[in-house]
Amino acid sequence: MDTRYQVFVSSTFTDLIDERREVIQTLMQMDCIPAGMELFPAADEEQWAFIRKVIDDCDYYVLIVGGRYGSTTAEGISFTEMEFDYAVSKNVHVIAFLHGQPDLIPVGKSDIEPAARKKLEEFREKVSTGRLVKFWSSTAELPGLVALSLSKAIKAYPRLGWVRGGSASNPELLEQLNELRQRNDDLQGKLAKAFAARPPATQPDLASADTKFHLKGRYYKKYNREHYDTAWEGDVTWNDIIGMLGPELFQPMNEEAANLALGMSIAVRLELDGHTVKIERETFNTMKLQLMALGFVKIESLRTTQGGSAVFWSLTSLGRDVMLRMRTIKGETKK
Q: How many alpha carbons fall within 13 Å on the CB side of residue 232?
């Protein structure tokens, strides 16, 4: 049965229209069910009971903090902060994205009054306390950050999620599905191994898994409240790549998330001082085709909840074997 997760999207002001649209589109491509203030155009006290019910039903809570504190109640607290506090009180996992350059946000999208700016700073500090947060400075950054962060949250903090009503649990059906899934995995593994062991005549010039590949891309870092965009380059083998990316692919991952996940591993290996690391498009596409040719990954277009499709990566049996060989800790050989 396909499990889908409902995600509440909250932001500090309605001016973040483009940012919310990009995040919601990303969630739909990940087969998640987005919910948020779009459902409640009248942000007042009368809606609060309904909003709490929606948050209760959500699996994860995504918060986008921009340059404004947002609409407030009679007590002077913003509805966004009320949502955040309620989500935390209900142990809904929070994934927060704070603008990394609030001083550079246009005046039209920023709080000017000192009291409002102080409340925004206090809210940013509250959100950052006791949890990891991601920083963003442009709308284009958000989809990748959300996809990677949510994928990691689903693995680290699994929730029950939602299942289509027509697929209610039936012991016999579940047993049959599990058997078919196991058979499919076995067949996929055999196909991958057969593909990897094919005669050299089919592709005599295919590089081996131990061959080094030159990666390059860009990384973004924050220093003294300034953000920097810097190019990087480095050489790794194909075995290294699947060793780094493999643990993220036990369940299908979309291309943007795969790029960011590998980029963060590359950052550790190459000691890059950046909070968002991406591989350039052409290099990434070459890497994708080579991993497919080596039989390490399966890349397919899957349907989304909106009837569209998106490209997802997953690990083959051969890829899993290589990843385990690269990542597992070996015991000492007895003499």
A: 26
